[in-house]
Write a structure and sequence with these properties.
The protein is of the alpha+beta class. The protein has one domain. It has helices at about 5-15, 25-35, 40-50; strands spanning about 20-25, 55-65, 65-70.
């Protein structure tokens, strides 16, 4: 026994659709993606989270030359 649950079993223990906020830190995902050779598709990520949650708000933080900017998704 590994102590891990299958995703299907985990889904059944959650409330119907819990509320969730989605925050994306673009700088960290970009750097890790570039180093590993893959990039994150934010629309797919949003849709994947929305399948199991009611997204109350979503934010993406994008690195610019002058610092962190907040854009509403």
């Amino acid at each position: 026994m590994t102590g891990y649950q299958r995703l299907e079993d985990f889904k059944t223990t959650l409330p119907k659709k819990p509320k969730a906020g989605l925050y994306i830190d673009d700088l960290n995902l970009y750097k890790r993606g570039k180093a590993s050779g893959w990039m994150t598709d934010y629309k797919k990520l949003y849709n994947w989270v929305a399948q199991m949650n009611t997204i109350v708000h979503a934010r993406i933080y994008i690195w610019a030359n002058h610092g962190m900017n907040q854009l509403k998704a």
